[in-house]
Amino acid sequence: METPVSPIRRIALIGMPATGKTSVGAILARLEGLPFIDLDDAIAIEAGRSVAEIFTAEGEAGFRERENAVLARLAAGGQVVLATGGGCVELPENRALLRDNFRIAWLKADLASLAKRSVGGSRPLLEGDAEALIRKLYERRRHWYEDCAGEQVHTDGMRPAMIAKVIHDALR
């Protein structure tokens, strides 16, 4: 007997900062006919301040607590394409929410490319030597991304629309 497929479709994009999760997610949502949510934006809207302001006022721990609460609500909700923040995989409870409730695609890119894309941005954990910080974050998070990811997409040299199409096709 076949197990019925849930009519609820939730897709999450994970990966390092600057891999294009937000750009790709918005396009993927259109391809899938689903709403799109950027997790960092949802956290900022709920908090009434930017991610950088949350980090300043509450530290990373406070931000992660907010992130977990919003992710839990989205995991229990309806259909969505979700672009997570790069550090969403830091908490074990977030990894469990992602694995148990979403089809997951890990966007991967060359670390030097990510560092170049991150310069001048508003990424609180990448202030300073972006390349060294990217490398350090990647080494810490890599096994968590691997643990969560159903699909892995190497994005170097690809435009967001192409990446979204690759993910869309892989999820069929």
Give the C-alpha Rg: 16 Å
Tell me the fraction of residues in β-strands, as a range: 5-15%
What is the CATH architecture descriptor? 3-Layer(aba) Sandwich
| Number of helical elements | 7
Number of domains: 1
> What order do the strands of the largest sheet run in, or round the barrel if closed?
2-3-1-4-5
CATH class (first level) name? Alpha Beta
CATH topology descriptor: Rossmann fold
Concise summary:
With 172 residues, this protein is an alpha/beta fold. It has helices spanning 21-32, 39-47, 51-75, 92-101, 111-118, 130-148, 160-170; strands at 10-15, 36-38, 80-83, 103-108, 151-154.
Account of the 3D structure:
There is one protein chain. By secondary structure, the protein is α/β, with parallel strands linked by helices. It has one domain (10-170): P-loop containing nucleotide triphosphate hydrolases (Rossmann fold), CATH 3.40.50. The chain has helices spanning 21-32, 39-47, 51-75, 92-101, 111-118, 130-148, 160-170, and strands spanning 10-15, 36-38, 80-83, 103-108, 151-154. It starts with 9 loop residues before the first strand and ends with a helix.
SSE topology sketch:
Blueprint: E1 10-15, H1 21-32, E2 36-38, H2 39-47, H3 51-75, E3 80-83, H4 92-101, E4 103-108, H5 111-118, H6 130-148, E5 151-154, H7 160-170
Helix pairs in contact: 1-7, 2-3, 3-4, 5-6
Features:
Rossmann fold, 55% helix, 172 residues, single chain, 13% strand, alpha/beta, five-stranded parallel β-sheet
